[in-house]
Amino acid sequence: MAIRETRSRYEALGLSEDDLRRLHYHMLRARRVDERSWILNRQGKAAFVISCQGQEAAQVGAAYNLRPGHDYLYPYYRDSGMTLLLGQTPRGQFLSLMGKKEDPNSGGRQMPGHYSDRALNIVTASAPVGVQYPQATGTALAFKMRKEDGVVLVCGGEASTSGGDWHEAMNFAGIHDLPVVFLVENNVYSISTPAAAQVAGSIAARAEGYGFPGHAIDGNDVLAVYEAAREAFERARSGDGPTLIEAKTYRITAHSSDDDDRRYREREEIEEWRLKDPILRFEKYLAENGLLDEEQKEAMDAEIKAEVAEASEYADNAPFADPEDVLTGVYAEV
Amino acid sequence: MAIRETRSRYEALGLSEDDLRRLHYHMLRARRVDERSWILNRQGKAAFVISCQGQEAAQVGAAYNLRPGHDYLYPYYRDSGMTLLLGQTPRGQFLSLMGKKEDPNSGGRQMPGHYSDRALNIVTASAPVGVQYPQATGTALAFKMRKEDGVVLVCGGEASTSGGDWHEAMNFAGIHDLPVVFLVENNVYSISTPAAAQVAGSIAARAEGYGFPGHAIDGNDVLAVYEAAREAFERARSGDGPTLIEAKTYRITAHSSDDDDRRYREREEIEEWRLKDPILRFEKYLAENGLLDEEQKEAMDAEIKAEVAEASEYADNAPFADPEDVLTGVYAEV
Amino acid sequence: MATKNLLQAIHEGLAEEMRSDDSVMVLGEDVGRAGGVFRVTQGLQDEFGPARVMDTPLAESLIIGSAIGLSVNGMRPVAEIQFGDFITPAFDQIVNEAARFYYRSNGAWTCPITIRAPYGAVHGGGLYHSQSIEAWFCNTPGLKVVAPTFPADAKAMLKSAIRDPNPVLFLEHKRTYRLIKEDVPDNGHEVPIGKARVHREGTDITVVAYGLMLYTALEVVEKLSGEHGIEVEVVEPRTLYPLDKETILDSVKKTGKFLVISEANLTGSVSGEIAAVVAAEAFEWLDAPVSRLGAPDVPAAAFSRPMMDYFVPSAEKIEAAMMELARY
Amino acid sequence: MATKNLLQAIHEGLAEEMRSDDSVMVLGEDVGRAGGVFRVTQGLQDEFGPARVMDTPLAESLIIGSAIGLSVNGMRPVAEIQFGDFITPAFDQIVNEAARFYYRSNGAWTCPITIRAPYGAVHGGGLYHSQSIEAWFCNTPGLKVVAPTFPADAKAMLKSAIRDPNPVLFLEHKRTYRLIKEDVPDNGHEVPIGKARVHREGTDITVVAYGLMLYTALEVVEKLSGEHGIEVEVVEPRTLYPLDKETILDSVKKTGKFLVISEANLTGSVSGEIAAVVAAEAFEWLDAPVSRLGAPDVPAAAFSRPMMDYFVPSAEKIEAAMMELARY
Ligand SMILES: Cc1ncc(C[n+]2csc(CCOP(=O)(O)OP(=O)(O)O)c2C)c(N)n1
Ligand SMILES: Cc1ncc(C[n+]2csc(CCOP(=O)(O)OP(=O)(O)O)c2C)c(N)n1
Ligand SMILES: [Mg+2]
Ligand SMILES: [Mg+2]
User: Which pLDDT value is given to residue D168?
Assistant: First the structure.
């Protein structure tokens, strides 16, 4: 009975079993790439790691709605779950992580997590938090002007809503009913600052003040995220305007490899959230629905781990960027 | 019957007949000063005029709650109705208008409308729209830190909510329950841009998203404004935090003496709003309540006009700022 | 070909680009029905509609940020900042974002936006409608900063800016909008970004100036020629960043004396960089101190007329600086 | 008196000012429990409570704007910008607001705020945790910009900054936080804003440098003295705006040769202004071109180590520049 009800849930969402497997695959793959990054960091091969761990459901559930190379993505630094889903590779991630010449995002110029992919319409990401929001509205406006059905997905953490850029973009999107989906991955912390000292009221509730819908959803439930995002994408595609989604989730790792989170949060809190791990949770769902047994899981994981190991090895052996590379490519040629 | 009802309105607000007369006086005085400014402009004596006309009720009704020299005011360029009420003088206004040395706001440095008065806690105003909001929250925070009962009133037009500063301040005020009152004088236009192209959704409705109350009120009804502001000031004084008030009003004049509003709005629209003039409306209310007859009105007006004429004359004869004044006062002495 | 002032020339450049390329659009505060506070965009909304000539909210970071996003998705936006003084909220989007799209993505993404901003002191403008904002931006690799002075140059350079795959900040001195008229070619006239212009040949002193100061300098220079036989070579950078060092250095090497004039507060203005280049690379040719003239180091021009007039470098001060060099 | 590195000295300066003046407070991102990403404010929240050491939202314009408002109402806020690169959203509040409160109100309102910002290239920092941001601010009358390098100076100057009635931007080079330790006086040691420091007397060349470049220069200079008998006078401005011209000019007039080194992208950096001052006011004493050294004109240091190391001016490059001057 319980099973039938949950099964009907994904069916109601129009998802096939294959879709479910892909959602699972992409979450797990992102996690494994991330885990490997920390090992490389401990080995002294990666100067800086910034993680997606804990946020894979929010990322994969939302980005699953994107049509790569058609819609646009403005990811933030934790969104490797999105960029991998769209077509970036573990190799690429590790090349970037180690500042290698072949880094697909920036040729070794940017820190890891600053994604960019012209072919996939992943717009070059930056470090100043929040700048992506006005840019995303501009990209959406271009779609609207040309009467195309493209959608722009723009993402950030909950602290990215504190700066003016978020608001200016929300207002602009509301005025012109732009085809843009705002995804806020509220993972409770901004480095050390808890959401209570960061956000007054409610992020999701703010959308109403701009005249469009906002939804606060369980960001660790990949189907809930997919559902909210699908609705938002449909709204955008049909010209009805923007949607704000606040995915409530949690940052399982420290802010980055430079951060020591014992200064500001209790271990128990993290342990509690580990129990709500979005991947374990989805695996349980799949198992309950007879879509995943231990063996299948092991097989998929083994495949992913092999890919990750190969990618990491490749990147490790790849050449560093040349010193003089720092000098080139300041201006595009007229 | 109708009269008794309206009378009980001001009594319920705790206003005496004397209060009503003062409200009327301050609105009318602000208007007359403003009208005179345009004459000086046409005479070639004032290079630039920016008006309060049409917004006197919003300004006087709100600022009537301020304790001069104790609470703080961050006015915007139209708020002469507020600064005059607090104790600035018509003389001061005209001295500023003509860039005279005695200009109390800036010694001839700033354009008219950039109010400043240390003794009255009117914080030096600027031209970049919206910068006052974060500043006001800081001033409110100082009150809170010292456990004092001071309140900060900060004002702007509806377009001042479009920039990031407004949002950052709203969020901060909400997080810390700061004793600040946000007054947005929504006069429908930002220079030429109508509110529909400026504001998505509703300004007042946004307060909820920050966790504090927002009220959209009839900004041409001085008692309605007074009422909303009084409640907001009480909330702030008793430590309950901020309030947002959106006073719906209308800019009767062009944006400034540099603007030709025929480019973007119909004369009929202005005429319609002239019928809703806040001063006429309040005079009607007072008359209906037997608090003002033609004679009293004429007497008050004559007194104001005499003061205005004298002030204008004084300012006209006052010396210009010295050229070298431009060089002094860049740094405060250590 | 018709005779036009700076404002008309810029308007025409915009209109022509919009006619020839559908992806060119204008956005900014009050650029639509009102045609901009200076009327540069007047009539464009009638011709191209409210989407391609869009009134934005009062939010400069949004204006530039959305222009960036538009450019990413096939458009060629020309963003107007109503007054240069109000470009500050967009500082992040300009210097940290637009200027770096190309470099940080290793050449994958370009950011072909143009940002028009009126600058310079004007009567009645006061502290916040007067600033010379060049120096804030002339240290940002990836960005180009142009400040043409004459109408024909301005029109041609605006077109170059719009067609440039890089972000270009296009500065217009407010007091020169209607100052002179000159023949402005209808189409096809090209002025590349990055090339200075020698307005007048001379053998005694090299003067670099732009904007209102260029006009004042050109007047003073004629007077000096007539009254004292001093022949000053006048170089207008036109592009402030990256600088056409060669033209400036060639001139100094000929004259041996150098003065750079800018209306900005002297200290930290772009004249420092220009003077430093001359002092480093033309040292052996110099017969006199590398001289600079600018406004005093106070926030900006004041509202009150006498103060404002005292603030802006005057013809007298410019003449004195030249005479001092000539006598050196 | 104890031996402290730069980071500890700044921490101590803050703590002492907070102890002696209740109105001094700290606000910024993660300055509270976490003690700041560089740990400069570590322990302060425990001692002074969460109101006086306040974690703000991630909103730099708010941080500076609210600091201004606090200062207006009796407080002496010290605002921390987490990385200098992220000061850009606060640009408006700094240059158009804080710097002008005094001037625009004709002396009625002061704005005694201090803004601390770590700057400079650091390994692993990449384009956005590396910038030298000085030049953006060293043209803003009303603002003071200080960039002390040595721990004792930094502590004393931070105190001067906090007590100053004007807004002061206090720059800290990240790579020098833990580079050296020196004796740092406990209390009472004063270093005024606006005075340069001569680190080493010399007769052959004057070198101006600050931050990491100062350390590198001081090393190179010893080498040159030992190996070639070239004696370089090293001047540290400490305050970048307004500049202590006198100390610099006195030195150049003695040595006749001048080099200014800054880690910033060369073009448009503060070294241009410094060089221009020398070229104008010490011209007659100069025996060689006014020289400058800086990073190449690219956006900022890259993440990848080889690129980053190539970006920052190295000891070799500095030595070469000095040798060229010496041989001139
Ligand atoms: C404008 C700006 N200020 C400060 C920083 C430094 N910083 C980087 S990430 C971060 C926290 C962001 O928190 P949130 O948006 O919640 O995202 P999360 O890291 O929690 O996913 C801060 C303060 C920055 N990158 N940009
Ligand atoms: C940051 C900034 N951008 C642009 C301007 C130019 N400007 C001055 S007033 C104004 C319109 C403001 O409209 P609103 O806030 O509605 O106030 P109103 O004038 O209608 O009372 C504009 C665009 C400015 N002063 N500051
Ligand atoms: Mg977060
Ligand atoms: Mg308005």
Answer: 98
